[in-house]
Every structure is written in structure tokens, then in C-alpha cells.
Design a protein that fits this description.
Length: 496
């Protein structure tokens, strides 16, 4: 039995109040096609209100000692823990991911709360020697002010916590625009902040479209930082607009992640990891494995074992504990995946399994696509270069370790990569040479831990990272402070 929300229509969360908006649109459960809730379509004056409230609240919040700010985040962590099952069930209903993965995603939020709350007693700067006598020098982190957070639908709670928690611990106020497809996690998280006692206005949730609300965030002069996760097209436009305003922007975007399977790999383990990385969240993870770069010596065996294992992938409504692969977020997602199946076939890749939408019987109302395996793909094919964002994986045979690294790196993205080998020399060369922000050895391409930096090289981002202590760099400015206690004018570099 699915959990019901207490409301049929969500409201914005501004200055600690639930503010209704006249225009709204329906949110559908991708597994059943049923409308779950109405989400507000806010306009620019709603954004204006939220930003002004945040601006005022931030002045006070920045003066609250960071260990006290941390107390609020610890309470948020405990509330997330207490409500984990409810949140997970709701997440599966709005996003479609299977319940086990939804629980994992909520757990990431819990981990992030407890981890980053600890920063309330660190937020380290540096003290350094000064060049001159009787002078003190140090650097410290300062909050930037109001930060704008724009999040995607595929990890609607985890990504929000990777961004909002570090922003809050550092003394900023937040305006947050969640994806329209998955507003329930934002609603639930705002309720948790409210119960945890976060002062009014420190976090504000404005629901609505990217082109109205997101765009207003990007262009608002009182928003000093934009932290965005989403697609490359949107990210590029946001970066260009922020560039013109000299606004700091952190971008986490797409991936074309590969698992490399060498001739000495543990194939059974590799198969398990490929299935989990390629078909988990129906391939709709930024770190999803969509390429398998396989040594030609084990290619046939790997194909056979993958095909055999794929037989056991149960597809359906993720609320059912026995389901392994849930639905695709919407019909546009299905259409994009279908188009890549045609592209792959026309390019000459061999379709070994799947390649079709499921439309009959229990699948009729939802958006389902069969887990798909291509083989004999070449590194330059579009299916091996472009993000498909669905349960589609392509095998690319290679002749050597060196070629595997080259193929892995020969894409515009640089998020995650993985290698299966038992040769320690290859392991160390691979972790050095794989040009991605995340590297796994003898594990799939997914499964980031929140105390490490999350993000990618090249076209995946612009050099910033979510989560880990590195997230603080996005939401703070460095301030250098000099205290001269000599009582005389000491000129730097001159009176030495
Ligand atoms: P998207 O770019 O369509 O939307 C992301 C967010 O941006 C949404 O909230 C959307 O409303 C908003 N938006 C859209 N147009 C905007 C505009 N003009 N101005 C401001 N905001 C705007 O992406 P999506 O389809 O929601 O998410 C899938 C993408 O996200 C994939 O490419 C995936 O790889 C990527 N992703 C990356 C990471 C990472 O950390 N690297 C993590 C998860 C997802």
C-alpha cells in the first residue's frame, strides 16, 4: 500500500511559511501513470520574495556560532533517520527508483547531515607566519550570502543534501528550486528543517519551471552562488549567464561512464557490478555504467554471462521489494532511449538484448523500458559517446590495457570509471590515468560515499565538487586577515 501525502497540492516554503501559488501542474508516478500531487508553478515575484527573505535571514544566521548551526543539522539528520522509510516510499512513488535504492538515497542524506554537521566544529582556516614582526596572519572561510540551488529529478533528496547542508553549516541562506518531476522530497525536507528549528528564511523552497524560477535564480543579483546539477545543455547556459555577471557557479552534469573488464578480471564479480551500475535506477544515474570496455580475450564469456544474468532482472513498480528495475521518469525519457536504440542499430552495433519499451499488461500505464545490451560497439559511435540516461549498455572490445584507458578517456565527460583486474600494476596505472573525478577498482561505477568529493572532470563539470569537505569551497569565500600589533606602520615587502 503506497503512502499517501497529507496534501494534494504542495506550497512553496518561504520564510518558514507554506505559501500557496495559484498555478500548478500535476506530478505523476512513473510506475503507474497516476497523479500523486500538484506542484506549484511559481513566478518571478515568488522568487523575489524568497530571495529578499533569505537575504535578511542570512545576516542573523551568519552570526550564529557554527557549532550551534551544527546542532540544527544534527537534528535534521535524526529526523531523516526517523522518517527514512516514509521518505523512501515517497521517493519511489515520485521518481520510480526501486525501494531498496530509495532507502540508499535517503541514507546518503542522513550521512551527509551527520558528516557536515561535524564541520560546525571545524570549518578550518589556516594561521601562517607573517613576514613582519609583531604581525599575525590567518585565512578563514566566510559565507557568501544567499545561494541558489537547482537540483535534478534523479536524486531528488541526496543531491539537495549535498548542496544545502554545506551551504547552511557555512552560514549562508538558501533558495532552492527542485525539479518539477520530484517535488515531494523537497516538501518533506523543508518540513524536516521546520521541525529541526532552522530559523525562518534560512532555507526557502520555490517550486516551478527551470525557465522561470531557475532562470530567475541565475539572473538575480542578490544570489551570489549557483549550485546546479543537471544536464549539460542547461548547465552550459547557466554557466554563460553566470559568467556575464561574474557569479560563482558550480556545475555537476552528465556522464558516459565505463566499466573496464580486463582479461584477468573476476568475471562473476564484474557481471554483478555491471548489472548494478547499468540498470540500477533504470540507468538514470549520472554515474550509470553505459559502456563496458572489455578485453577481447574475455568478450564472449562476458557477453554470455551478462545475458544469462539479465534474465533475472525483474521489471516493474519499485515499491514491490522483488523488483530490480523500475520505470523511466517520463515519456520524453522513453523516446530519447528509443531514438538511441535506432542510432545504435544504424551505426552497426549488435543488439543482444532488450531494445524495446514495455507497453502491455501491468506496464501499460507506466514508462518501462527493457534492459538493453549492445555489443561490438566502437568507441566513436554515438551510443558510446552520448549520455542516453536509460537502461542501455554497450560493449566495446579492446586489445590491451592501454587501449582500454584510451577508450575510457575518449569521451567529452569525466565523471566515473571502473576497472576490473587483479593485477596491482594495472590498478595503480589505471587510478592515475583514468581521467574521471571518481575511479573504482573491482567495483561498478556507482556508490559514492559522501565524505569524499563528488563530481567530474572535462564536460561533466567546471572544477567544483559536491559533498566532501570540498563542497564548502563552493559555499564560502576565503578571507585573509592580517593583524598588526606592532603599533607602527609596517609596509609589506618593504619594511622587512
Ligand atoms: P535538467 O538540466 O533538465 O534539469 C535540472 C534542473 O535544472 C531542474 O531543476 C530544471 O528545472 C532546472 N532547469 C532547467 N532549465 C533551466 C534554466 N534555463 N535555468 C535554470 N534552471 C533550469 O536535468 P535533469 O533531466 O533533471 O537531470 C538529468 C541530468 O542530470 C543528467 O544529464 C545527469 O547526468 C545529470 N546529473 C548529474 C549529476 C552529477 O553530480 N554530475 C548527478 C545527477 C544528475
Amino acid at each position: 500500500m503506497a503512502i499517501q501525502l497529507e496534501t494534494r497540492k504542495l506550497a512553496n516554503f518561504i520564510n518558514g511559511e507554506w505559501v500557496e501559488v495559484s498555478e500548478s501542474t500535476g506530478v505523476t508516478n512513473p510506475a503507474t501513470g497516476e497523479e500523486i500531487v500538484q506542484v506549484p508553478l511559481s513566478n518571478t515575484s515568488d522568487v523575489e520574495k524568497a530571495v529578499q527573505v533569505a537575504k535578511e535571514a542570512q545576516k542573523e544566521w551568519a552570526l550564529v556560532p557554527a557549532p550551534q548551526r551544527a546542532e540544527v543539522l544534527y537534528r535534521v539528520g535524526y529526523l531523516l533517520k526517523e522518517r527514512k522509510e516514509r521518505l523512501s516510499q515517497l521517493l519511489t512513488q515520485e521518481n520510480g527508483k526501486v525501494i531498496e535504492e530509495a532507502r540508499g538515497e535517503v541514507q546518503e542524506g542522513i550521512d551527509m547531515a551527520f558528516y557536515i554537521a561535524g564541520e560546525g566544529r571545524r570549518l578550518f582556516g589556516q594561521t601562517t607566519p607573517a613576514e613582519l614582526k609583531n604581525k599575525f596572519a590567518m585565512s578563514q572561510r566566510a559565507p557568501v550570502g544567499v545561494v541558489g540551488i537547482i537540483t535534478p529529478w534523479n536524486f531528488p533528496i541526496a543531491i539537495a543534501t549535498w548542496k544545502s547542508f554545506p551551504a547552511i553549516i557555512a552560514g549562508n541562506a538558501v533558495v532552492w528550486k527542485p525539479a518539477t518531476e520530484t517535488p515531494i522530497m523537497a516538501y518533506e525536507l523543508a518540513k524536516i528543517f521546520e521541525v529541526a528549528g532552522l530559523p525562518k528564511g534560512v532555507i526557502n523552497v520555490v517550486f516551478g519551471s527551470g525557465s522561470t524560477v531557475g532562470d530567475a535564480f541565475v539572473h538575480h543579483t542578490d544570489i551570489r552562488v549557483i549550485s546546479f546539477t543537471g544536464s549539460n545543455d542547461t548547465g552550459r547556459n547557466i554557466a554563460a549567464a553566470c559568467g556575464k555577471q561574474l557569479k560563482k557557479v558550480s556545475l555537476e552534469m552528465g556522464g558516459k561512464n565505463a566499466v573496464i573488464v580486463m582479461d584477468d578480471a573476476d568475471l562473476e564479480l564484474a557481471v554483478e557490478a555491471i548489472l548494478w551500475s547499468a540498470f540500477g535506477t533504470s540507468g538514470q544515474r549520472c554515474t550509470a555504467c553505459s559502456r563496458v570496455i572489455v578485453h577481447e580475450a574475455v568478450k564472449e564469456t562476458l557477453e554470455e554471462r551478462l545475458l544469462a544474468a539479465m534474465e533475472y532482472l525483474t521489471i516493474g513498480n519499485g515499491l514491490n521489494e522483488s523488483i530490480k528495475v523500475g520505470p523511466i521518469i517520463n515519456k520524453a525519457g522513453i523516446d530519447k532511449i528509443k531514438s538511441y536504440i535506432e542510432i545504435g542499430k544504424n551505426e552497426g552495433a549488435k543488439l543482444l538484448a532488450g531494445g524495446y519499451e514495455l507497453t502491455e499488461g501491468e506496464y501499460r500505464q507506466g514508462n518501462y523500458f527493457a534492459p538493453t545490451l549492445f555489443t561490438d560497439a566502437t568507441a566513436d559511435m554515438r551510443i558510446a559517446q552520448e549520455e542516453i540516461f536509460g537502461p542501455v549498455v554497450s560493449l566495446i572490445p579492446v586489445k590491451s590495457f592501454e587501449e582500454a584507458i584510451e577508450v575510457n578517456n575518449g569521451v567529452e565527460y569525466g565523471l566515473s570509471s571502473s576497472i576490473f583486474t587483479n593485477d596491482v600494476n594495472r590498478v595503480f596505472k589505471a587510478q592515475r590515468d583514468l581521467d574521471t573525478g571518481i575511479v573504482y577498482v573491482n567495483a561498478g561505477t556507482t556508490g559514492a560515499e559522501i565524505h569524499l568529493p563528488f563530481g567530474g572532470t572535462k564536460g561533466t563539470g567546471n572544477g567544483h565538487r559536491d559533498s566532501g569537505v570540498q563542497a564548502l569551497d563552493v559555499f564560502t569565500e576565503w578571507k585573509a586577515v592580517y593583524v598588526d600589533y606592532s603599533g607602527t606602520l609596517q609596509r609589506a615587502q618593504i619594511d622587512v
